[in-house]
Amino acid sequence: MHTDFFKWLDQHQGRQYDLHNEHVNPAFVKMLKTIGFDKGYVRGEGCYLWDAEGNKYLDLLTGWGVFALGRNHPKVRAILQQLIARDMPNLVRMDCSLLSGLAAEKLTEHASATGADLSRVFFCNSGTESIEGAIKFARCYTGRQDIIYCDHSFHGLTTGALALNGADFFRERFGELMPGTEKVPFNDLAALEQRLARKQAAAFVLEPVQGKSCEVVADGYLVEAQRLCRKFGTLLVIDEVQTGLGRTGKWFCFQHWPDVQPDIVCTAKALSGGYVPVGAIITRPKIMDTVFNSMERCVVHSNTFGQNDLAMAAALASLYVIEEDKLVENAAAMGDYVMEKLAPVARACPFVSAIRGKGLMFALDFARPEKSLKLKMAWDMLHKLNFGVFGQLIIIPLLQKHRILAQVAGYHTEVIKFLPPITITREDIDWFVTAMDDVLADTQRVPGSAWDLVSGLAKRTVGV
After folding, report:
1. Which strands make up the sheet holding 352-358, listed edge to edge?
2. Which of 181, 325, 357, 438 could make an SS bond with 214 (beta carbons 3.0 to 4.6 A apart)?
3. Distance between CA atoms of 125 and 268, rounded to whole angstroms?
4. 423: closest CA among 333, 331, 351, 361?
5. What is the DSSP letter of 256?
């Protein structure tokens, strides 16, 4: 490798798709090229990406929520650079890290702000790992086996977390998953009570805003679910991997309902600052003390890279940036602003069936229109070719025409989800809303170039 790393890297610029096709994931490369997402980004800063031609893009995907602070945040970067410049005694293991202690102190301060006794933290490397740990902790504390989860949920893709995945798309072809899991309808308290009443469930795990569809828990649901869990001896586990650390306008989404005091909270993504993978399981002392109940068992649950100095510095820096820059408040204000501006645009499009979310985690749901015969026929024709391709009618022109990056998120419905950085400004939201107005208007022009594009895409996908 060349001694000047970036000079060496520049010599290989443009090879990424060939390299991934050969050595990483050819199907992913084919997908990117098919929908025209092979842009070859070369720089990221704040809310923006740039390609090799110097074109600027608004990033509303944020690495599936990792870049909540935007890309390459200067304050986080400065702290990591200082850390790398010192010869830190990293991962000694037979010692206690000051950095992880400080990160845990700061994290629990915010998790317990509404009165929940969430004062212990286990650090890991990702959101899915935090869910795996929460499953173990709940089973250990309760002595029970079963885990209840919600339909349409998404908690990760390792086999334990996958057993709690509400979408069959992710589960199929991977064999038998973790036993003892059972699905209940989201926001259905009667179904939950019926299942909890068997007194076999160690935990009820749910997202306050579902990651794939942005379905939000109904007002009063979490409080009542908490009451039922306590009545029947089940732990309430809140998955805040996407919603945590300010995204919904509170430090944690469950804090929108002040009486909710979960037993375990899982978080990750934004905690990384966009630099170093880190996740966390935040829980009550009595639960942690049951897991680590003796000197002999003090490392009975552990991992290799958890609490590494770079991850802990990134976490600490991220928490302080969110505080100092008042990003929770910005997420609340910008979330209200985007809903105010987007709602009339969405209502004007016959294909939009719902706009939902909380703060800066929101989505548009699309469905067969009720009135226009021409639009119904266009919808039906497209869905006979390939269910789920309608979303490309939105995200492809958003990127190609308006340089806005977003994702199709639903596997049970037609959903486009948006996860802006929580640093986003009104100007960027105006850019987005203007683009959506134009793209949604194009969906109503049948025949038209947008429909020709996705019809061709659908035919290529199914090999027609």
Report:
1. 352-358, 361-366, 414-418, 407-408
2. 357
3. 8
4. 331
5. G
| Strand-by-strand arrangement of the 120-124 sheet | 120-124, 279-283, 264-267, 235-239, 201-206, 146-150, 181-184
- Pairing type for strands 48-51 and 56-59 reads antiparallel
Are the C-beta atoms of residues 279 and 266 closer than 8 Å to each other?
Answer: yes
Edge to edge, the sheet with strand 56-59 lists 41-45, 48-51, 56-59, 404-405
Residue 357: Cβ within 10 Å count: 26
* C-beta neighbour count of 183 within 10 angstroms: 16
Judge if the upstream peptide bond of residue 447 is cis by omega within 30 degrees of 0. Answer: yes
Task: Measure the CA–CA gap between 212 and 415, rounded to whole angstroms.
Answer: 8
Q: Sign of torsion, CA 314 320 321 327?
A: positive
Contact of 65 with 271, CB cutoff 8 Å: no
Per-residue pLDDT for the chain (464 aa), expressed as one digit of tens each?
667 998 999 899 999 999 999 999 999 999 999 899 999 999 999 999 999 999 999 999 999 999 999 999 999 999 999 999 999 999 999 999 999 999 999 999 999 999 999 999 999 999 999 999 999 999 999 999 999 999 999 999 999 999 999 988 899 999 999 999 999 999 999 999 999 999 999 999 999 999 999 999 999 999 999 999 999 999 999 999 999 999 999 999 999 999 999 999 999 999 999 999 999 999 999 999 999 999 999 999 999 999 999 999 999 999 999 999 999 999 999 999 999 999 999 999 999 999 999 999 999 999 999 888 999 998 988 888 776 788 889 999 999 999 999 999 866 678 999 999 999 999 999 999 999 999 999 999 988 877 877 777 766 665 44
Contact 264, 111 (CB under 8 A): no
Helix ranges, 155-206 (H): 159-162, 168-171, 189-196
Can you give the length of the chain in residues?
464
What pTM value is reported for the model? Answer: 0.95
Residue 2, class by beta-carbon neighbours within 10 Å (0-12 exposed, 13-18 middle, 19+ buried)?
exposed
**Phi/psi of residue 357, nearest 5 degrees:** 140, -170
User: ∠ CA(278), CA(329), CA(341), 5° rounding?
Assistant: 110
CB count within 10 Å of CB 29 equals 18
Residues 6+ apart with CB under 8 A from 280: 107, 121, 122, 123, 124, 130, 266, 267, 268, 271, 315
Q: Tell me which residue of 130, 81, 88 sits closest to 107, measured CA to CA.
A: 130
